[in-house]
Amino acid sequence: MDSALIPKGAKRCSFPKFTIGIAIVSAVLLWGVYAMFLCWFKGLNQTNMNDYYGFALWIWADLAVIAVGGGAFFTGLLRYILKVDELKNIINFAVIIGFICYSSALLILAIDIGQPLRGWFIFWHANVHSMLTEVAFCLSAYFAVLTIEFIPNILENRQVNKVPFFHHLAHNMHGVMAVFAATGAFLSFFHQGSLGGVAGVLFGRPFAVREGLLIWPWTFFLFTWSAAAFGPCFTLLITKITEVITGKKLVKDNVVYLLAKISGWMIITYITAKIIDTIYWAMVTAPSLGFTLSHFYTDNSFYGYWILVTEIIICGVVPGLILIMKSTRENPTLRIIAFVLGTIGICLNRWVMVLQIMAVPVMSFDTWALYIPSWQEVATTILPVAYGIILIAIAYRYLPVFPQEKELNR
Amino acid sequence: MKQENNKAHKFGMVIDLDKCTGCGSCMVSCMSENNVPFKEDESNKKDSITWMRVYKLTNGKSFPDTEIVYLPRPCQHCGGKGDHGHSPCISVCPATATDYGYDTGIVSQIYTRCFGCRYCMGACPYHARYFNWWDPKWPEGMEKYLSPNVSPRMRGVVEKCSFCYHRYQAARDTAYYEGRDDIEEHEYQTACTTACPAGAIVFGDLNNPFHKVHQIVKPDPHPDTRNKHVIGKSRNPKVFRLLERLGTNPKIYYLSEREWVRKQGDNYLDGEWDEIKNHHGSSSHG
Asked: Which of A315, B43, B150, B219 has its CA 20 to 30 A from that of A190?
């Protein structure tokens, strides 16, 4: 039925099967949309957030999707600026994942703010001292860059590409993509970093605050670094999931190995810096404010040392080691374990830097505050996942996303 | 220029915790004065608005040695590190919806500019900032009691104690009409100060040596020798501020004769308190 739109030579499932799949995911999407409208029309009382948890599940989701979406800028940097040519076989998909992640992040922010119609105030009345201002500017600008990076791939659709103007436009956009890749890397450095800065500058919150370089706390650099390290992990994980669902090999092993190796070394260097940062914070920064490490990990029913060990060792050091060693990296099972652990690790880091900050008591007579999200929060957090699945499904079906697909599936 | 700086006020408060009975008059007067909306059930203090909140502290000892103290906590109107006006909340607000009055030391909140990102709430270690989770509502007829001097806040924005700024404006208006340059101490007093039956709250200009608050606190205008970020440390050994060592530089001071109360003002590592408790603002600047 839609065969004229499917890339030439590519095999896709039947249209009814595709439609049923999309319909199932759309039901989840609609559930999220319903919750989103509840939040917009009835207000944030639909959530379980409170005055202790002004930042909660959504902001975690926001930071998490931006972190895992970091694969787009970093792969783009490697492909277009550092000229790692093999990555041309995965860059389209990295861009699509990035596009999904960043559009989701903007949507989450639009739901999260109490006065959505005033969202533009962040640009109009911008406070140059606020890390969130930097986030807003760079995030919006980078989303525009991602859209520009995505457009040539859309224009390569079999039917669209028949129009000479679109054909030439796509060709010419590919030609100047290095400029956008460089712009994207620049913007990403700042918005990933400023998201880290959001936590690091909170000098009233000893769990979050970090010293740093000039106006940038160490978390600024750690967030950028971690997004560059774990973002490709997530890109490779989603690629693998897509391969499993479609039953096709889409990217050659040498490309996967290369990106996995780069990701592994980025993770190892990041996690080394993270360990140094954690030790310095635990031994110098926090004690100088009157806090011991145990204050942040005891006397409550959820946040124990386990979260520190899981984030840094199990989901940081372990995937890093798996990916830097050739024997383990080229073992399919271990590689997937590394991708999963890495993705969990970066998401856990963002959780800690949002929710644990809010949970830890600061005044000596205050108590730990724990929070369980409402179904509206859960639904709106799942919404981007459903949206992402649908967009990937549509893009995969109708666009030449994977250049090696035909060759690998003859 | 120097002349102008000398004229700057630095409004602040000292609360005598040994006098406070925990009656809650300050909370009620604050809500009434500032048109603070309320819910039918205000028992969940994590999502109800109390610009002034009274905490109950204990010495942790069992009967008969138990002691209790009530600690009223308004917005601390922090001056930020080095008292430069970059308080934890002001420095993070992306839309400049909260600002520092360099002529008063008051941290303002511009409700019509706030778009409800709540970053300021995350930044405030005192939980002094409140979000309007619901539309503001008052029981029928009670809206007639709303103060015309204070704008009610809409759903989706953050609010907090303003040191009854409208009273400051009214006092300045009066002074202007009477041809005076400045206001008298008694002309500008917050609602909680005037409502406290025990007289536990003293409000005034910390920069003015003739004001009672200055005389009690005796703020040291120089950086603390132990922490360069701390300015305005009290030279009165019985006076302390909440979380002073974070460098937030609050303008709310607390007074207590009891050591265990003063100790609860901040966090200390083992053995630190004994070393720190006798360290007060430099007397050489007296």
From this structure: A315
